[in-house]
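Weekly modeling sync, notes
Attendees: S.R. (lead), two postdocs, one rotation student

Agenda item 3: backlog of single-chain predictions. S.R. asked that every request posted to the team notebook include the full sequence so nobody has to chase files. The rotation student volunteered to paste the first one in as an example of the format we agreed on. Action items at the bottom.

Example entry:
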Amino acid sequence: MPYLPAAPPANYAAVPYQQIRVSHVPASSPTPTPVILLTLYRPGKNNAYTEVMTKELHNAFGLLSIDDRVKTVVVTGHGKMFCAGADLEIGFKYGTDTERSHRDGGGVTSLAIYRCTKPVIGAINGSAVGVGITMTLPMSIRIVSNKAKIGFVFARRGLVMEAASSFFLPRLVGYSRAMHLVTTGAVYPSTSPLFGDLFSEIVEPEQVLPRALELADEIAKNTSTVSTAMNKDLMWRGPDSPEGAQLITSKVILELFKSKDNAEGVQSFLEKRPAVFKGTMTNDAPAAWPWWSQIDADPKDALGKPKL
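Predicted structure, as returned to the notebook:
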């Protein structure tokens, strides 16, 4: 796809994505804004997921992650549905993929969201099933419509839970609820107790996007991008013991004590004024980050070169 940019563009709205829309907030801004809105966009198809979406979402989140002009990202769906899951009418072509080379497209997207250094808020404006809901699991916050239907339907399609959801789902809702959801493969209302605390807020359909944008604006104006990125990784990528967490946190916080964002956060508090955080992950990430051994799970071609 030659139209996919390799570096953050001057105007996201001008990038000719086919099945997503990326816009500034407000949309009238000619340059990228602290809050960016990404919309799944397949009119007439209920935003059903395709291979094109995989490539475009992977590209967009990669750019937004390194774009220092951006502080938060909101993801929603065009129309009344968030995402109907994989487009089964089109299907997926595997070509020369083997057990070693194949990568689940939903997982490519989930990992792109997971790796994004900016908080991502899901504005789940309508029903979401299959990859339509699993792609939201790595997001920091999920706001959902009280009219939405949610389904982890894989067992009813002869498949398994994809998009790395076997990692995220039980950690978010608990193993008992997760097993119930994937064993039945049924579609449930977003208000079902089976979802536990998966959704931060459940609101009327017309309130979903405004509330998500309100939260995004609050985060963009009041938090340090470096801090929010570190907090997410400390929870998701932390060690499996409190002692290990203590060692990693100690390394990170020692560096942040000396950071410009910490100085600004303390000074603004003492002066009783809004903080103006200028730190970025590009220039100000702690030297201790990343503290984990990164596994290369990105798609490769027959020669071992990146496919996306």
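Discussion: group reviewed the output briefly. The domain at 224-284 is CATH 1.10.12.10 (Lyase 2-enoyl-coa Hydratase; Chain  A, domain 2).
Action items: rotation student to repeat for the remaining queue; S.R. to check formatting next week.
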